[in-house]
Amino acid sequence: MRSMPKRVLARNATRAALPRALTALLVAVACSPGAPPTEARADVGEFPTIPGVGATLPSERSSSVEEATGAGAVNVGVNEGNEPRDSEPSTPAHAGDPADGIASSGTVPGPSADDPPPPDPTSEADAPGTSEPTPGGSSTCTLAVTVTTAPHGGRYTPRNVGAIWVADATGAYLKSLDVWGDRRLSHVEAWNAATSAAGVPRDRVDAVTGATQPAHSTHRVAWDCTDHRGQLVPDGPYRVYFEMTEANAAGPNHFEAFEKGSTPVTREASAQNFADIVLSFQP
Question: Residues with Cβ < 8 Å from 172, sequence gap 6 or more?
Answer without folding.
Answer: 194, 197, 198
